[in-house]
Amino acid sequence: MLRVSDLHAKVEEQKILKGVDLEVNAGEVHAVMGPNGSGKSTLAQVLAGREDYDVTAGSLELDGDDLQEMAPEERAHAGLFLAFQYPVEIPGVGNSYFLKAALNAIRKARGEDELDAMDFLQLLRKRAELVDVDEALLRRPVNEGFSGGEKKRNEILQMAVLEPRLAVLDETDSGLDIDALKTVAAGVNALRSEDRAFVVITHYQRLLNYIVPDHVHVLLDGRIVRSGGSELALELEEKGYTGLTNGSSGD
Amino acid sequence: MPTAADTIGALAERDYEYGFVTDVEQDTAPPGLSEEIIAFISAKKNEPQWLLDWRLQAYRGWLKMVEPTWANVRYEPIDYQSICYYAAPKSDDDRPKSLDEIDPEILATYEKLGIPLREQEMLAGVAVDAVFDSVSVATTFREKLAELGVIFCSFSEAVQDHPELVRKYLGTVVPRRDNFFAALNSAVFSDGSFVYIPKGVRCPMELSTYFRINAMNTGQFERTLIIAEEGSYVSYLEGCTAPMRDENQLHAAVVELIAHEDAQIKYSTVQNWYPGDKEGVGGIYNFVTKRGLCEGRRSKISWTQVETGSAVTWKYPSCILRGDDSVGEFYSVAVSNNRQQADTGTKMIHVGKRTSSTIISKGISAGEGQNTYRGSVRILRSAEDARNFSQCDSMLIGDRCGAHTFPYIDVANPSAQMEHEASTSKIGEDQIFYCNQRGIDTEDAVSMIVNGFCKEVFRELPMEFAVEAQKLLEVSLEGSVG
Fold first, then answer.
1. Is residue B318 part of a domain?
2. How big is the CA angle at A228 (ends A223 and A229), to the nearest 5 degrees?
3. From the CA of B6, how many Å to the nearest CA of chain A?
4. Cα angle at B201 between B299 and B234, to 5 degrees?
5. What pLDDT was estimated at residue A198?
6. What's the pLDDT band for B373 if we cut at 50, 70, 90?
7. Backbone region of residue B217 per phi and psi (left: phi > 0; alpha: psi in -120 to 50; beta: other values)
8. In order of start, what are the domains of chain A with their CATH numbers?
9. Yes or no, beta carbons of B448 and A93 under 8 Å apart
10. ipTM > 0.85 (yes/no)
11. 3-state secondary structure of B297
12. Residue B71 belongs to what domain range?
């Protein structure tokens, strides 16, 4: 589904990604782990098409389509979803209004009928229940005055409503206490399916106790230095990133 | 891959949507201002001697006044002798009795503007007093309102039919020498609306007027007077658009509101006059004096404005809170895009005891637009236990525009409670990207973010107007980020 080949990217003349290869198939959950500054979030931003991130070499394909040719909203229409590390506040815009606009923009782009208010509300309630989000959250403005945990749960709710092909979770666990972490993980697990894939970006192994990945990749200094099964995350927890690189073939 | 800035740049190329011109023969006064011209205007309108004298007094005062320069706006000096002070459609000579008699071209103009002059207005419950240039050409629903004793007519008609009311109230809130532009208006005012709500009557429909400037090189000087008797209620809507012009057109209106005991007046404006082109050529100069007097106890006046048009705006809808426990409100959205300049705000003057006022101002600057909030809250010594809440928020779109805030607070009674909040925010790339990532394109994202920012004001607008205001805001800000 997602094929990243020899991806190089820079931000303001600083080279961050230095040749990333990643292949994700439908139904799989991939974890990308790495310390601060390794390029994890850059990878997420590049996938979503953020303007300030320049791809200098390599390719990005989603279902065979070249992502670099697509605007951020076109990538969303194609089924790519990014759960933000720092979800953005949009004061005065109702959460459910925003989600309806988003869902209908995606449906419209796909040539599907837009949902009317009633149908949307029904869908929204169902999805909110699925990922265990309080309905009160739906009536508030997008992320405005939300706690850290509420913001992350709201990202999961958006994902549940937009039903992406590929969801990229950028440090969704950061700033969450253990209860919030469990709720968020349960939401993600509820959305796992045969034709959906996840790329879970995280600093800590902790999250992966609750979202068990099929594959784990370790990103260091802009390159994936190790890949393996879920046991790799445990090894990482034990040895730390430095221990892992010393023991790995590195480059 | 097109960037947000590209999309927005392309949108900025769009022309002013309402830029078309209707060709109607004008019955126009020669350019220039003199006592003769004023006498001509007054005679044209068949006015009584006292009103001519009133105009002349205003004119003589105006001659001694100096155009104000304190506002944070810059424009070429206005040559008051090159302006035509009177223009009316030909059909005015033989006033139409119904819509069927109205010049089809005028109707077509209204049609283009989407003004619901026919059956739609019945459904919408809106009575329209449409001002085409200087003379009202159509007034509807008047019989229905008359049954309740409500008077809703053009100002000229009011002078003929209700001279005692006009004479009693004209200039009582905005004196004829109040300021340079108000004095000019008092000398040459052309037409406008007159509303009278009798004691205890709740006006059953929104009263609506659409203004439209259309004559080449002709200033338009509306005069509006609204009187709400004891315990009455009225909601008045004013909305305007203008065709594209190269010359700067002067507009200096005066609006006076009087609310007696327990009366409420809600005055809503959506202003979308031609703002000039991207280089700042053309566009309307909008120098307006609007003031309401809360004369009686527990009276209330609310101003709500959405200002998206005009090249230069100079406008401070104000309330004099004279009656004890009276309430003044000001809700404003002002947009300055491209080379637009807006200096707008309000004055709340607390005279009576326990008077309270609320000010919510949302300024949006885009392109090279300059947006200034200028507000004054005065608590006089007599105003025991007065309260004010002010909130002034500015939003910047792009990095070439400016937002300025000048709040003046003057408290002469120590029992006053004052609250002032202010914020300035920049519409963020990150907000737009967040929307993009959820599938919403940049144009829709900007309009959504801006509408969210203005929500507190829009919810004060009557329903049908709120929708129109949002649409206007979208049109005004198309292509503004970059």
1. yes
2. 140
3. 12
4. 60
5. 97
6. very high
7. left
8. 2-248 (3.40.50.300)
9. yes
10. yes
11. coil
12. 4-477
- CA of A89 to nearest chain B CA: how many angstroms apart? 7
Give how far B467 is from chain A: nearest CA, Å. 15
pLDDT value at residue B304: 94
In a domain, B482, yes or no: no
Q: Mean per-residue pLDDT for B445-471?
A: 84
pLDDT per residue as tens digits for the range B119-146: 333 333 344 454 444 444 345 566 778 8
Among A88, A99, A105, the residue with its CB nearest the CB of B430 is A88
**Tokens 């709740």 sit at which residue?**
B202
**Residue range B409-424, pLDDT digits in tens:** 999 999 999 999 988 8
d(CA B177, CA B315): 17
Q: Do B453 and A91 touch (CB under 8 A)?
A: yes
User: Residue A139: its chain B contacts at CB < 8 A?
Assistant: none
Q: What is the pTM of this model?
A: 0.79
What domain count does chain B have? 1
Candidates A67, A75, A142, A144: best to mutate against B (most CBs of B within 10 A) is A142
pLDDT tens-digit series, residues A140-158: 999 999 998 899 999 999 9
Q: Do A71 and B456 touch (CB under 8 A)?
A: no
pLDDT at B354 over 70: yes
Give B-chain residues touching A69 at CB under 8 angstroms.
Answer: 1
Which residue intervals of B24-141 are DSSP H helices? Answer: 35-44, 49-63, 104-113, 119-124
Q: In this predicted structure, which of B271-285, B366-380, B423-437 has the lowest mean pLDDT?
A: B271-285
pLDDT (0 to 100) of residue B125: 39
| Ramachandran bin of B420, using left for φ above 0, alpha for ψ from -120 to 50, beta for the remaining angles | beta
Q: Using a CB-CB distance cutoff of 8 angstroms, which residues of chain B are in contact with residue A106? A: 439
Q: For tokens 């944070």, name the residue.
A: B72
Tokens of A47: 């996938």
Chains A & B: contacts with CB separation below 8 Å: 86
User: Exposure of A195 by Cβ count < 10 A (0-12 exposed, 13-18 middle, 19+ buried)?
Assistant: exposed
User: Does any domain span residue B357?
Assistant: yes
A161 contact residues in B (CB cutoff 8 A): none
